[in-house]
Amino acid sequence: DNAIMGAYRKLESIVKERTGLNNESGVKLFAKAFQGDDSVLCWENLDSGESKGRASLFTSVYMAYRNNRAHQEPSHNLGDDIREFMLINQLFVLESEAVFNQQ
Questions:
Q1: Which residues of 23-42 are buried (b: 16+ CB within 10 A; e: fewer)?
Q2: So what's the pLDDT on residue 76?
Q3: 57 CB-near residues (< 8 Å, 6+ apart)
Q4: Are 60 and 35 in contact (CB under 8 A)?
Q5: Mean pLDDT of residues grouped by 10 in the chain (103 residues)?
Q6: Taking the model in full, what pTM does it have?
Q7: Which pLDDT does position 72 carry in this prediction?
Q8: Burial class (CB in 10 A: 0-12, 13-18, 19+), 55
């Protein structure tokens, strides 16, 4: 639980630092950072559907997993924890591939 929550916090810190969206957190942070034509970050050479899907991963993972983990006592199931950790890992990969939106 500590490693997973630490990963969520680290991802938020990285996105805040890159985007300057220091007053936002969680779903709102990722929405402003990645979603829409006026997002701060984007991915080059992707069609709009794939970009929207990638952006939605950030908000969806936080809504589906992080919020539950942050507000409830976690039930420790190693398989579930490993899969959640891998989801967060993919968000780190996607964040590192994003570039500043030039639009």
A1: ebebbebbbbbbbeeebbbb
A2: 74
A3: 90, 91, 94
A4: no
A5: 93 98 96 95 94 96 89 82 95 98 85
A6: 0.91
A7: 81
A8: buried
Name residue 78's amino acid.
L
Which residue type is seen at 59?
T
**What is each CA distance from 68 to 13, 35, 49, 65, 74, in whole angstroms?**
20, 23, 28, 5, 8
CA-CA distance, 55 to 36, in Å (whole number)? 9
pLDDT of residue 33: 98
**CA pair distance 96, 90, nearest whole angstrom:** 10
Residue 28 tokens read as 């709102």
Contacts of 4 (CB under 8 A, 6+ apart): 69, 81, 84, 85, 88
